[in-house]
Fold each of these.
Amino acid sequence: MAHTEPDASQSSTTFLQRAPEPAILRPAIGLLATLAGVSFMAHMLVAGNYGYFRDELYYIADGRHLQAGYVDQPLLIGWLAALMRVLFGDGLVAIHLIPALACALIVVVTGLMARELGGGRVAQLVAGTAALFTVTFMGTGSLFSMDVLDELWWALAALVLLRLLRRNAPHLWLVIGAVLGIALLNKLTVLFFCLALALALLVTAERRFLLTPWPWLAAGIAFVGLLPYIIWNALNGWPTVEFWHHYGGVGTSPLDFLAAQLILINPIAVPLAVAGLVYYFRPAGARYRLLGWTFVFLYLLLTLLRLKVYFLAPAYPLLFAPGAVMFEQLHPRPLFAWIRPAYVVLLILVGMLLAPDVMPILPPATAERWAQGSLSQVLADRFGWDSLTRTVERVYAVLPPAQRAQACVLTSNYGEAGALQQLAPPGRVPPVISDHNNYSLWGPGTCTGSVLILVGYAPSDIHGVHTFYTNITRAAVDRCRYCVDYERTLPIYVLSGATRSIFPRLWRMLKHFD
C-alpha cells in the first residue's frame, strides 16, 4: 500500500484542536449601550469646565507640527489633534469628544469580555458598571490624551484574545497584531502588555501557538505600528531614549504601588478584581488562563521596574470581566439575596463620590473642600493658564517699542508654552519658545534671544545668565490658587541688553526631556 503524507494544514489544525468552544449568551446590547451613553454624557457635560489640562495644550501644539513621532509619544495624538482642529476646532468641548467616546467604548468592550467568558446579562452589566466607575477611567475619559486610548486598545486586544481562546481560532492573532500596532502608534506602554503576554504564552499550554506562524505574524504586524517611531528617533538622535531615562522610574515602592491600585480601581471594585484573577486559575477558567498569567506578569514587571502607578490601569478589564462572571454565578440564600444588588449600588455610589477627585464636576473651591486639601494633579493642572496669558500680555505691552520688536517668551515647560500659544490673541504676545521635550527639537525659530520674557524660570536657574544680559528685571508675578504647586507663584522676568549671541549655547544648556 502506498504511504500518504498528511496534509500540512490538517496537521496544524489537529495540533491546535481543543475541547469544543463553550456556548455563549447573546450580548446585552441595550444594557451596555445605556452604560456607554451614561459615560459619554457624563464626560461631555463637564467637558467645558475648568480649562485645558497641561498635556492637552502640548498635544494641540503637536498637532501644529505633524511628525512621525515626538520626544515623549508616538504620532497618533498629535495627528488626532490636527484632525479635530480641522473638523471641530480645538476648543475644550471639541477636543473632549474623543476621550469621552473612547471611555464609553471601554465600558462596552469590558461587558463583551464578560460575555466571551460565558457571562449573561448580569455579568455584562456588572463588568460594564465596574469599568464605568473605575476612578482612573473616569479621569482619563475627561482628558484629551494618549491614556484613555491606550486603555481602549488594551481592552480590545484582550477581547479578541478571549475570543481566540474560546473558539480556538489562531487566525485571530492577526487581529490582535493589528490592534497592538495601532496601540503602538499611540503609546509605548503597550509594550509591557506585549512582554507580559509573551511570558504568559511560555508558561501555559497556549505555548502551542508559538509553533504556528500566527503569533509571529501578529508580532510583525504590531511592529509596523512601531516602525515610524523608530525611524523618527533614529533620524533625531534617539530623544525618546533620553526621555524614558528621566521619566520611567519614579521610585514607587511595591507597597505604594499596590495601595495606589486599590484607589485607582475603585475600592468597591477590588473584590470583583480579585475574584477575576482567581477565576483564571480555577478549573473553570483553564481555557483562559493565558490572560491570568498575563496580568500577573504585567503586575510584576511594573512593580519591579517601579513605573507609574497608573500604567496598570489598562489591564483592569482583564479582571472585571471574569469577576463579573463569578458574581453572576453567586447565588446566596434567600435571606442574603440583597447582597448582589447592594454591591452594585455601592459600586456606583462610591464611584460617584470619587468622581469629583478626577473629573471637573464641582466648582474649584468646592472640589478643594471635597478633596480635603489641594486638588489632585489631574484637576489642578487645568488652572492658571488664562491668568498667566494675561500677565505675559501685560508685560509685553509695556516694553519699549525697540524691545518689543526683538522680544520672545521663553517658558520652562510645554504647558506654559502651549497655553500662551493657544490662549493669547494674535499679536498680544511675542513668539513663544521652550526647551522642554518636543519644543526643544522645534528650536528657537526666529527668536534671537536679544530680549527674553522669562516664564517659569528664575534667573538663578540659568547658569551664567548675568554674563549674557546687562538688564534683568522682575516685571510681574502671576499667582494661581488652584494650580499645581510649582505653578502657583510664577515670577515673570524681562532679560535685555544681550552682550553676545546666546543661541545655541543657551538652548543646549536648558534642554530637558522629562
Note: The longest strand covers residues 469-479.
Amino acid sequence: MAEIWDYIIIGAGSAGCVLANRLSANPKHKVLLIEAGKKDTHPLIRVPVGYLYFMSHKVIDWGYNTAPDEGLNGRSLPYPRGKTLGGCSAINGMIYSRGQSQDYDNWAALGNQGWAWQDILPLFKKSENHHRLKDQNHSQLGELPVVEQRLSWDILNNVEHAANEIGIKSTEDFNDGDNEGCGYFDVNQINGSRYSAARAFLDPIKHRGNLTIVTKAMVHKINLVDKVATSVSYEINGVMKTAQAKVEIILSAGSIGSVQILQLSGIGDVEFLHSVGVKPIHQLTGVGQNLQDHLQIRTIFKLKGATTLNDISKTLWGKFKIGMEYMINRSGPLAMAPSQFGIFTKSSDAHQRANIEYHVQPLSLEKFGEPLHKFSAVTISVCNLRPKSRGYVNITSNNVNDAPTIKANYLGHKDDKQVAIDSIKHARKLMQTKVMSEFTPTEYKPGAEIISDTELLKTIGDISTTIFHPVGTCKMGTPDDEMAVVNDKLQVHGIKNLRIADGSIMPNITSGNTNAPIIMIAEKAAQMILGKH
C-alpha cells in the first residue's frame, strides 16, 4: 500500500535539506525526504580536504563523466556529484558566493517575477550566519555559518598585492551584489570543519516526528494521473515502494538527477523519450537542455623563494606537522577549502562588470586526486563567469541505473573562446607584476612559449577542467519560452503539484560559485509552497 505524505522531497542535497527544514517546521505537515545516497557519517566529510578522497574513490559520489568534448580536444572530465545527505555540499569547495546582483535582475527581466536582487536578498540573509557582518546585506540569524578561513599564506598575500598593482582593489565582502575585487573567500565551516547543508539544516531537525528521511532509496519515477503528480516510485533494499503526495512533490535532485527523474517519468521531448524506450506523458522540450557550467583554466607558475604547500608536504616531517596542526587547532592545510584566494575582475575592457573569477591556490598538481608537484608553485585558475556555451543532459535508456549523457559543450561559443584566451593573458599580467618578480615566476602551464591565440586555444582545451557548477537544465521561464521547464513559482509547466527547486532552474548561471544561490532557491521555493498552502 502507498505511504501518504503531504510533501515529498526528492533529493537531500543543499536544496532538499533546506526544504525539509522549512516544510516540516509546521507539525501538521507530514514530510518525506528521499535520498539515493547514504547517511553523511563518513568521517572525511567534515575534513575540508576530504573532497579529494571522494573524488578519486567514489565513496559518496555518483561517479559521472562528461561526454568527450570538442572544446577540450576530445577529452572527457570526471563530474563529481554528491550522493549522500547534503549532496554536493558534502564534497564541494565550501565557498560562499552569491554572485552579482545583475545576475538576478536579468532573471527577472526574462519575465521571472520576484527573482530580482532586491527580491531574493532577504532569502540569502534568512539562511546566513555571518561571522562578522550584520547589515543590509548580511545576517547572523541563519543556520549556515559563513566564516573566514583559518589560514593565511604569505604567497597569497603577495598575489593580493599583485592584483592591487594592476588595479584590482581588495575587498572584505564578495557578497554585497558586486563581487569585483580580491580577497580570501568566506567558507561554510565551523572551527575548521566542513558545514554541509545537511549539518546546517537537517541535523538540528531530523528527529521531528512529522519528518521521515529515507536514504539509499533510488527514485524510479514520478507517477502522473491526468497531468497531476500524485506519487513517487522508489526502490530501497531491492523492494519497490510508492509514496503518495497529498499536496506537492518537490524535485531537488540537482541539474543531473532532476533531469533523469523527469525523463524517466515521461516528461521531456516526446521524440527523444521514444528513442530511449520511455513512454512519453508530457511534452517539455527544454528538459535536459540549457546546461551551463564554469570551466576553469588551470595555469601554474613555478616560484623561487616562496613557501607553498608543495614545499611543506614533500617530506614526512612536513606531512606530520600538517596533520598535527589540524588535530590540535583545526587549522592549516587540512582545513583549507580547495581554493583559498579569489579575484573577480574583467578579462578585457569589453566587459562592463566582472566576468572572470580567479581561484588561487598555494599548491600545484597535474589533476585533482594526484600528488602535489615536488617543485614550489602556485595555481592561478581562471574561469569565465557567464559562459554562452550550452550543453545538455539526457538519459541513455529507460533503466534508472544507467548514467545519463552529460554533454557540456565547453568553449562551444566563439565569445567563450575569446574570454578564455584573454584569461590566460590576464593571468600572465598578474604574475608579471613587480610584486611577483621577487619570486621569479616561471610559467609551467600552459608555458610561456605558447603565444598565438590559436596555440593558446588549443592548450586551453588540454589544461582546463570544470569547477563542478552544472545548472540550467530545467530552466525557469515564461510559458512562451519553449525551453522553459518551470514557471517563476518553480511549478513544472503543464503539470500540477510538481515543482523543481535546485540549480537546474537557473535561466543563466550566477557569477560565482553556485551552492549559496541553490540554498536561496530552496528558501524561495519553501516560502512559495507555504504561502500557497
Note: The chain is about 25% helix and 20% strand.
